[in-house]
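Supplementary Methods S3. Complex input for the zinc ion-bound model.
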Amino acid sequence: MISYEVQEFGAPLVRAEHPTPTPQGDEVLVRVLAAGVCHSDLHIWHGSYDLGNGKSLNMVDRGLKLPVTLGHEIAGEVVAMGPEAGNVKVGQKYVVFPWLGCGECKVCKRGEENLCLAGRAIGVYRPGGYSDHVLVPHARYLVDIGDLTPEHAAPYACSGLTTYSALRKFAPRVFKEEKLVLIGAGGLGLMAILIAKALDGAGVIVIEPDASKREAALKAGAQAAFDPKAPDCADQVRSAAGAPSGWCLIAWDRARRWSRASVCSPRVAIWCRSVSSADTSTCRRRRRRCAPSPIREPTSAISASWKS
Ligand SMILES: [Zn+2]
Ligand SMILES: [Zn+2]
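Predicted complex, serialized as structure tokens:
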């Protein structure tokens, strides 16, 4: 099979040919039809994550070994399976759940493999989707995509799960009754708008400094999109979201930058793309600090954040 590997951090991917694996036991061989490029792929390719405050997370310290075939948003069709693979069909199209754990620890055994400390995620610690085939260790990691195209289905494995998880942090009734204020309308933000709509949320208000992204957000179904640099941004958001009951989702890579923007709302959920406990605790600290905030004027803080 042909794969495009990271053989050296930061260097161009290298085309490599290896024998196509023959699935054994529970394994399933999937022919890749679509593979998304996630921002995490860029961090892994670079070899480290910038955690802010001069700290970084080195992928080698996290157990990554080169060469590696990246790509954890994969959709494809089953072409072969081991004798114990069970309920999958050759020719059927699936999206691959990539967040594999060790399968042995208590975290994995209670069904939270994505939280396993000995994770072996596809496209990070195991060969991923930047290849023509990927070997999946068990059929339970395959989700039938029905009549979705592989290109549409693939991003649900990371971008989709990430945003769904963040949105489900809110109690269902709150989510259905209160507007969501979404900060940032990049790839994850747009996915969040689509999923919020599919979950019958009360509506999404977007804060985003880039005009083209605001336009994309409106096209995706946001009810309003505001520029944080506008002097009356806070008033616009409050008016659209119905403060003080409007609430705020602080999102994506800008969580640190935007922590002060939570003053828009009494209800705050912070989701951060962190993979380290250090970064997560930073967010938790901020959540404690932000959550009880009364409504104050956030405009200057927001503007300052974007300039920094
Ligand atoms: Zn990802
Ligand atoms: Zn485990």
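The chain has two domains: 2-155, 162-307. The longest strand covers residues 28-36.
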